[in-house]
Design a protein that fits this description.
Layout (H helix, E strand, L loop, with lengths): L1 H10 L5 H8 L3 H13 L3 E7 L7 E6 L5 E7 L3 E8 L4 E8 L6 H18 L4 E8 L2 E3 L4 E4 L7 E3 L1 H9 L2 E6 H12 L8 E6 L3 E7 L2 E2 L14 E2 L6 E2 L1 H4 L1 H9 L11 H8 L5 H21 L3 E4 L7 H14 L10 E4 L6 H13 L5
Parallel strand pairs: 3-6, 6-10, 11-16, 16-17
Antiparallel strand pairs: 1-2, 3-4, 4-5, 7-8, 8-9, 11-12, 12-13, 14-15
Helix pairs in contact: 2-3, 6-12, 8-9, 10-11
C-alpha cells in the first residue's frame, strides 16, 4: 500500500489524501496513517492547499525529489545508454557510450559497469535501484539476460546479480522493448492508455505489448519476439529480423549490400536516403502493415508507437502504413488504429529501465 501511494502521487493520478483514498479503496483514516508515515520517513511532503469551489480545502501532497534516484541502463549492438531519474520521476541526466563494431559480451559488461560507476559518482543523493533493459530473450525472475544474437558470446548473463553485488541496491531486469513501453507510460504518449504496442525496429525487430495496463510477457517470456517469424520476401523466406530491422531497411533504401557498414548516426542517414513512394519505401510500408494487422487481430491495441531510427522517416511513413493497414483483408472499418512515431528520443530504453526500477521500488523494503 505504501508503494502504491507513492506511485499514484508520482503519476499525478492522486494529489491529496482524499484522492489517494479513492484510488486505493481505503478509508480516509487509514490513508491518513499511510500519508503521515511517509511524511515522517521523508518520502512525501505537503506542498500547498487546494481550495475547491465545493467542499473542504485539501492539503496537496508531493514527493521529495532529493530522497534518492533510480538508474536506467539499456543497450543494443550499437551503444549503451544510461539515465538517472529522481524520486519524483523527473529525468536528471543521461549518457551514451557507443560500442565498436562486432561487440563482445565481456567488453559490453565492462562498459556497463564503468559507465554506471561514473553515473553514481556524479549524483549527490543515494542510488535507490537499478533497472536494466536488455535486448533479446530475458529471464526476469532470475535476472538473467539469456540471449542476444547481435553481441558475441551473449548467453545467460546474470546481469541483475552482477549489478546487485556491485552497487548494493535492488536490480530489476526486463526486455528493453518492454522497458520502452514503460517509458511511454511515464514520459510519452501512453500516459492515459491501457492498450498499446511498441514497434522496435533497430538491430533486429521486435515489439512489446501493454495490455490492460500490464506488460505482456507470455509463459516463456517471448511475447513480442516477432523478429523470429519466418517472413516471405521476393528473395525467399527470411526471418523478420532480417526484413524489418532498421539496419536492413536502411541498407535497402541506400542500395547497399546486406553486410555493408552502417553510418554512425542512422537517424540522420535515413533522412538522406528515404524517398517516399519509392519501391523500397513501399516494401517497408507493406511489411509493417502486414505485421500490424496480424498483431491487431491478436491483442487489439489503441495505438502502435514506432521507436528507433525509423522515426526519422516522420509521420508520413506512419500514415502510409496506417492507410495500407486499412486496405488489408479482412476489412475492419470499425477498428481503425493509429500508428505514430514516438516523441521520445534515443534514451527511451534507458528511461524505461529507470521507470522499471522506480515502479518496483517499495519503501517497505
Amino acid at each position: 500500500m505504501l508503494g502504491a501511494t507513492i506511485l499514484y502521487l508520482r503519476s499525478g493520478q492522486a494529489v491529496s489524501r482524499t484522492s489517494l483514498a479513492q484510488l486505493l479503496g481505503a478509508s480516509a483514516s487509514t490513508l491518513c496513517l499511510y500519508a503521515e508515515q511517509l511524511i515522517a520517513e521523508g518520502y512525501i511532503r505537503e506542498i500547498g492547499i487546494e481550495k475547491p469551489t465545493i467542499g473542504r480545502p485539501q492539503r496537496l501532497l508531493g514527493l521529495v525529489p532529493e530522497v534518492g534516484w533510480f538508474a536506467g541502463i539499456e543497450f543494443n549492438a550499437q551503444r549503451i545508454q544510461l539515465t538517472a531519474i529522481d524520486f519524483a520521476g523527473k529525468p536528471i541526466t543521461s549518457a551514451v557510450c557507443p560500442l565498436g563494431g562486432d561487440p563482445r559480451a565481456a567488453d559490453v559488461l565492462q562498459l556497463i559497469f564503468s559507465e554506471l560507476d561514473k553515473l553514481v559518482a556524479s549524483q549527490t543523493s543515494p542510488l535507490l535501484g537499478i533497472g536494466i533493459g536488455a535486448p533479446g530473450l530475458v529471464d526476469r525472475k532470475r535476472g538473467v539476460s539469456r540471449y542476444f544474437s547481435f553481441i558475441k558470446n551473449w548467453h545467460d548473463i546474470p546481469l541483475a546479480d552482477m549489478l546487485r553485488k556491485r552497487f548494493k541496491v535492488e536490480v530489476t531486469l526486463e526486455n528493453n522493448l518492454r522497458g520502452i513501453a514503460l517509458a511511454e507510460r511515464w514520459f510519452g504518449g501512453g500516459h492515459n492508455l491501457k492498450d498499446y504496442v511498441i514497434l522496435g525496429p533497430r538491430s533486429g525487430f521486435g515489439l512489446s505489448i501493454m495490455h490492460n495496463g500490464q506488460l505482456m510477457h507470455g509463459a516463456h517470456e517471448v511475447a513480442g519476439e516477432v523478429g523470429l517469424w519466418s517472413w516471405p520476401q521476393p528473395e525467399g523466406d527470411r526471418a523478420l529480423h532480417d526484413t524489418l530491422s532498421a539496419t536492413a531497411i536502411y541498407r535497402r533504401m541506400a542500395g547497399l549490400q546486406p553486410d555493408a557498414p552502417l553510418p554512425e548516426d542512422l537517424n540522420a542517414a535515413f533522412k538522406n536516403v528515404a524517398q517516399p513512394g519509392s519501391a523500397e519505401w513501399q516494401r517497408a510500408v507493406l511489411d509493417f502493415a502486414r505485421v500490424i494487422r496480424t498483431v491487431q487481430l491478436i491483442v487489439d491495441p489503441e495505438i502502435f508507437f514506432l521507436h528507433g531510427p525509423l522515426t526519422a522517416l516522420g509521420e508520413s511513413f506512419c500514415q502510409d502504413i496506417q492507410t495500407t493497414v486499412e486496405g488489408l483483408s479482412p476489412k475492419l472499418p470499425d477498428m481503425q488504429i493509429k500508428i505514430v512515431p514516438s516523441t521520445l528520443g534515443d534514451d527511451a530504453g534507458a528511461l524505461g529501465a529507470a521507470s522499471l526500477a522506480m515502479e518496483t521500488w517499495d519503501p517497505a523494503r
